[in-house]
Write a structure and sequence with these properties.
Blueprint (H helix, E strand, L loop, with lengths): L1 H5 L4 E3 L3 H8 L5 E3 L7 H10 L4 E2 L4 H13 L1 H32 L6
């Protein structure tokens, strides 16, 4: 995955734990979408707050809008990649772990 992302102008990915860590360690400008588990929206919010990703709901038009913003703004892409590099894999992994811990502290409905 790293080799593919290394040549990408941007990436559009889900936000699973391992995928998110791999994408953030690439680093590459990214639009993350909640494409799976219930934990992904919260993880994406954590990354957006840190300026590491753009986000979009799992709707083609919304994904396109965010991808277009990144593709049209060299400054936005550079700033995002710079923040990703500063955070590196270790920090991205710690952030993902922190988000997971926060999720674990929530009460989960029985059933």
């Amino acid at each position: 995955l790293g080799a593919l992302l290394g040549n990408a102008h941007i990436a559009v990915t889900g936000a699973g734990t391992m995928l998110a860590a791999q994408v953030l360690s690439a680093p590459v400008p990214v639009v993350m979408v909640p494409a799976g588990g219930h934990d992904q929206p919260r993880r994406i919010r954590c990354f957006v707050r840190s300026g590491l990703v753009h986000s979009a709901p799992l709707e083609p038009d919304k994904i396109f809008e965010q991808a277009k913003i990144l593709l049209e703004s060299r400054d936005a892409r550079r700033a995002m990649v710079s923040r990703q590099r500063r955070h590196c894999l270790a920090t991205a992994t710690l952030k993902a772990a922190d988000c997971l811990l926060q999720l674990g502290q929530r009460s989960v409905p029985a059933g």
